[in-house]
Amino acid sequence: MELWMMHRLRVINKGVALVVGFGLLVCAAFVLTDIIMRQIGTSLGGTEEIAGYAMALATSWGMSFTLLELGHVRIDLLRTRFQTFGKAMFDVFSMIVMSGVIITIAIKAWPVLERSIVNGSRANTPLETPLVWVQMPWFAGWVWFALMSTLTTLAALSLVVKRRHADTEQFVGAFAEQETLQ
After folding, report:
1. How far from chain centre, in Å, is Cα 143?
2. pLDDT digits (tens, 9 = 90+) for 76-96
3. HSE on the CB side for 49, CA within 13 Å?
4. Rounded (to 5) percent helix, strand, coil in the chain
5. Cβ count near 55 (within 10 Å)
6. Is-contact 91 173, C-beta < 8 A?
7. Of 92, 68, 87, the residue nearest 76 (C-alpha)
8. Concatenated DSSP letters for 14-83?
9. What's the rounded Cα separation, in Å, for the pair 81 and 87?
């Protein structure tokens, strides 16, 4: 069941990554259009602001995809010296720590959004963008990452309890080792 769940989460997050990637392409096209327009003496304006928003959204939503594709940076100095059980324990420990950090970030992101909602905050820029438009999907991305991290951690814990240590490698192991195994 854990492996099936992780497979489904990977499929969902690949879809999320495609949407985020498309958004970044649209942003890049917008910036490129603005650069070309500047050459003829005009500008769309606000490209720096919009690009910043795009990067914040891509980061918060892209982290889940990176997690499930084993793309987060890991220092595996000790982990590589252990057999399957030891590696699984390091992997689960790292996931527990990551989940704790990401849940904390998601919790701390809420007051930022709440303040913008209550105050009707707008960006202090010529566009005067209502910040809730950007902070709502940004916050949702962190909550999504917290949920993905928690589900991944629970699946890994379940496999460790069932003594299926080798199975944890597929979704909480180290990417570098995954490449050498194939």
Report:
1. 10
2. 777 778 788 888 888 889 899
3. 14
4. 80, 0, 20
5. 13
6. yes
7. 87
8. HHHHHHHHHHHHHHHHHHHHHHHHHHTT-----HHHHHHHHHHHHHHHHHHHHHHTT-S----TTGGGS-
9. 8
Radius of gyration of the chain (CA): 20
Higher pLDDT, 101 or 127: 101
Take residue 119 and report the two structure tokens written for it: 């105050």
Identify the bridge partners of residue 130 per DSSP, sorted by sequence position: 122
Three-class secondary structure of residue 1 per DSSP: coil
* 19 vs 62: CA distance, rounded Å: 10
Which pLDDT tens digit goes with each residue over 3-23?
899 899 999 999 999 999 999
Which residues, including other chains, have CB under 8 Å from residue 80's CB and lie 6 or more apart?
A: 87, 174, 177
Distance CA 27, CA 34 (A): 11
- Helix and strand totals (H; E) in the chain: 6, 0
Torsion of CA 25, 68, 153, 103, to 10 degrees: -10
> At 92, which amino acid appears?
V
